[in-house]
Amino acid sequence: MSQKNSDGKRSARERLQEQRRLEESRAKRKRTLIAAAVVVAVLAAGGGIAALVASSNSAKDNKRQTTGPLLAPQGAVGAENLAIPVGSPGAKAALTVYEDFRCPGCGQFENGFRDTVHDLENKGQLKAEYHLVTLIDKNLGGSGSVNAANAAACAQDAGKFLAYHDELYKNQPPETQDAYGKKSRLLELAGKVEGLNTSTFQQCVENGTHDSWVKKSQETFSKSQYRATPTVLLNGKSIYGDPTKPLTPQKLRDMVAEAQKG
User: Is there a contact between 94 and 143 (Cβ–Cβ < 8 Å)?
Assistant: First the structure.
């Protein structure tokens, strides 16, 4: 074989190898471009999904942070409808009570004076207004104060506030246990009040229908001159909580009788 022919064959082989290298290079670039396009598309789609999830989470967070409209229970009275009335509206003696269902002192007052207060109410000599506040939740944490107050407001909607109010105090747990933070416990106690534990009441308790109203009651109490629960007033004058002049059931009867004369 001549040198010329040998060089020609090598040249042909080299050209073929070069062509193959170019084709492989082009194919590689094409694959790279396709892969890059796919990555961009996936990232874009992922970004859209992430944005949707973030938007959804944000909406959920906003929903959780929204306490809902202020809805007073049926028959609420007083400034901004923040009091629940009990007794005869025509009674000349008016008892105003600021209380927290987790408050031990409130339990002592209610359990110690319940029969006297109810007897005077039933005789038309005394009317009462209850303001439900949440000092213990604020001071110790938990949700028993607001949950119980909301449940009591739900009972007011059903016309059974007083009976349920009394059950909450008869079964009051230690304040540090926050047992009323469990709505199941509040529904269980509602079973002790005839006709109360209906689906409507249950939904009201579970949904926290009156939570904003309870919150407003606490805010108003915080801005007042009163600092502790229970705060008990008779015709606007404090009658409970002074250790130098302790209140007794008979003293309360005498005060109400005096107020009746006025």
Answer: no
